[in-house]
């Protein structure tokens, strides 16, 4: 039965490992019904390249992304009898340049991008998920306010960026909603009233246009006790009638389905009883793309699939 809406491979992403085909073969082996291939969009400024990308250029990232789409569609066709592959992308929003390029990329590539995972990985142009010291540099970059107010400012900026992204592109999947507290999983948004309002605003908006919130198992790998998002966000989403979809956010074949065995207990604990997933549709959705959200039938918690792969 299960699905993943979010993955990477070492073939097209320098901080991942393995070929995209090996990722797909592993998903087939584990019995995934649907698996989403969603490489990061290119970044467009030299300054935004990661250390492991030395030797690359923004132009080579763009070439790499185009090659990703070719390969993903080749695999989709090749393995269509064994697995449903959806081809998408994961967004970046570092500066306005990224949103402008995302718009032209979507226009240029049309239906080859079947859906979008809407994610934010930067605040004030600085990565928030690279390592703790870089995160702290992002917090410290809010020079216009006092030291003790900077954490709140970072969270507000993160959720404002997420909101802008959702407004412009209506991503079908909201990627790791609360990545902004990666290094502080015990942080609660309700301790920051201004942040909490933005969290609620974003959730309301996403639900209105029909987005699915990703339950992203990669958080367990990052030493969280929960998936993304943590309980406080799940509670708001559920209260407002929002829907969830599964992702492993794998960065190579070794991480396909990784920690999915921990999801049923989490789902049960937070009261999620329905799982949704994307499938191809003949009717354009609100963003004009040809996918729709479908509810998984039956008992999603009792399925043997969950034990297929345990923690590594
Ligand atoms: Zn991400
Ligand atoms: Zn990702």
Structural class: alpha/beta
Helix content: 25-40%
Which residues sit in consecutive blocks of at least 5 with pLDDT less than 50?
none
Distance between the termini: 22 Å
Beta-strand segment tally: 13
Pathway: Amino-acid biosynthesis; L-histidine biosynthesis; L-histidine from 5-phospho-alpha-D-ribose 1-diphosphate: step 8/9
Organism: Hypholoma sublateritium (strain FD-334 SS-4)
Enzyme class: hydrolase
Domain PHP: 5-217
Characterize this entry briefly:
By secondary structure, the protein is of the alpha/beta class. Helix content is 36%, strand content 16%. The strands form 4 sheets. A 7-stranded parallel sheet has the order 1-3-4-5-8-9-10. A two-stranded parallel sheet has the order 2-11.
Task: Name some characteristics of this structure.
312 residues; alpha/beta; 7-stranded parallel β-sheet; two-stranded parallel ribbon; 36% helix; globular; binds zinc ion; Histidinol-phosphatase; histidinol-phosphatase activity; EC 3.1.3.15
């Amino acid at each position: 039965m299960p699905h993943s809406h979010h993955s990477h491979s070492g073939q097209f992403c320098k901080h991942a490992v393995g070929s995209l085909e090996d990722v797909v073969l592993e998903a087939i082996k584990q019995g995934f019904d649907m698996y989403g291939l969603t490489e990061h969009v290119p970044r467009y400024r030299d300054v935004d390249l990661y250390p492991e990308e030395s030797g690359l250029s923004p132009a080579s990232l763009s070439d790499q992304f185009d090659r990703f789409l070719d390969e993903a569609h080749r695999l989709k066709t090749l393995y269509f009898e064994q697995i449903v592959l959806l081809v998408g992308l994961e967004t970046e929003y570092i500066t306005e340049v990224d949103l402008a390029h995302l718009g032209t990329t979507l226009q240029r590539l049309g239906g080859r991008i079947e859906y979008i995972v809407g994610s934010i990985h930067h605040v004030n142009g600085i990565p928030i998920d690279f390592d703790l010291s870089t995160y702290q540099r992002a917090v410290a970059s809010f020079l216009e306010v006092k030291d003790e107010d900077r954490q709140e400012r970072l969270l507000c900026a993160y959720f404002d960026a997420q909101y802008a992204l959702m407004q412009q592109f209506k991503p079908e999947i909201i990627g790791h909603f609360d990545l902004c507290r990666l290094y502080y999983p015990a942080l609660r948004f309700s301790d920051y009233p201004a942040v909490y309002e933005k969290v609620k605003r974003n959730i309301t908006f996403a639900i209105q246009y029909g987005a699915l919130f990703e339950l992203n198992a990669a958080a367990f790998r990052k030493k969280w006790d929960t998936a993304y998002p943590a309980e406080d966000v799940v509670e708001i989403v559920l209260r407002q009638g929002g829907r969830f979809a599964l992702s492993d956010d794998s960065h190579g074949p070794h991480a396909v389905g990784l920690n999915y065995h921990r999801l049923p207990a989490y789902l049960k604990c937070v009261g999620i009883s329905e799982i949704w997933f994307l499938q191809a549709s003949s009717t354009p959705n609100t963003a004009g793309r040809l996918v729709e959200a479908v509810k998984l039938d039956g008992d999603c918690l009792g399925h043997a699939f969950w034990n297929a792969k345990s923690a590594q």
